[in-house]
Structures are given as C-alpha cells and as structure tokens.
Amino acid sequence: MAGPVLRFAFVITMCMVVAAAPYAEAALTCGTITQKLAPCLPYLKSGGSPAAGCCGGVKTLHSMATSTADRQAACGCLKSSATSIPGVKMGNAAALPGKCGVNIGFPVSTKVDCSKVK
Fold first, then answer.
1. Is there a contact between 100 and 54 (Cβ–Cβ < 8 Å)?
2. Domain spans, the chain
3. What sign results for the dihedral spanned by CA atoms 100, 108, 115, 86?
4. How far apart are CA 24 and CA 68, in angstroms?
5. How far is CA 115 from the centre of its chain?
6. How is 26-62 classified by DSSP, letter by letter?
7. What distance in Å separates the CA atoms of residue 23 and residue 82, rounded to the nearest whole number?
8. Furthest-apart CA pair in the chain: how many Å?
9. Which residues of the chain have pLDDT under 70?
10. Taking a C-beta distance cutoff of 8 angstroms, is the pair 57, 34 a contact?
11. How many other CB atoms sit within 10 Å of the CB of residue 22?
12. What is the percentage of the chain residues whose pLDDT exceeds 90?
C-alpha cells in the first residue's frame, strides 16, 4: 500500500514543482529596445558613422539580452521596427552592430526567423 501512496505523493509534488516553475519570458520589451536605439535613427536613415549614444544603446541592449527569450524579443522588435519606420535602410541596420563593435548573433533583416534565434 505504501508504494502507490508514495508514487501518488511524488506525482503531486512534481506537478507542483512544474506549475511553480517560471515561464521563459523576455525581460526586454520593444519599448525599451526602441528607446535605446532612438539615437541610431539618423545613422539608420542616412548612413555614415553611428553616434556615440547610438552605439552605447546597442551595447546596453546587447548586455541586457541575456536569455534566448530576450534575444528573440529583440529580434522581433527590430524586425517589425525596420518595416514600420519610414526611411530606414536595411543595409545600414544590418551593419549597425558591427559598426558598434557588437556581435548580436543573428542577422538584422526583415527575413530572419526570430524563433530560431538562440
């Protein structure tokens, strides 16, 4: 009789542990991302050299994107922002991380599949 009772108690305990586990949620919001990258708009539209404030924002975001969920959220935000802000040149957007000395681990492109970003 103790065997089934112990198994039941184990199953209940495991269900409670799983239910209490935090869900993978991005800490970065699109609002934070666009705020940090706002100084980059002149570069994104006209090229040249990105401003110091722009690269500072890129580096800050890179350090904030610590999880897969964060990086996927950043990818999705960058992808949607690139298509919704008039005048953004995708070549400039793609080159921005490199110009700021940052490797973000995925291409800045409207064609990237953000679900595959790790």
1. yes
2. 35-116
3. positive
4. 9
5. 11
6. -S--HHHHHHHHGGGHHHHHH-S---HHHHHHHHHHH
7. 28
8. 76
9. 1-26
10. no
11. 5
12. 60
For residue 25, the model assigns a pLDDT of: 56
User: Token pair of 58, please?
Assistant: 């890129």
- Locate tokens 């198994």: which residue? 7
> What is the CATH architecture of 35-116?
Orthogonal Bundle (1.10)
Residue 90: how many other CB atoms lie within 10 Å:
14
Give the residue from 66, 83, 79 showing the smallest Cα distance to 107: 79
- pTM, two decimals, is 0.73
Eight-state DSSP code of residue 116? G
71 close to 41: Cβ distance less than 8 angstroms: no
At 85-106, the pLDDT tens digits run: 899 999 999 999 999 999 988 8
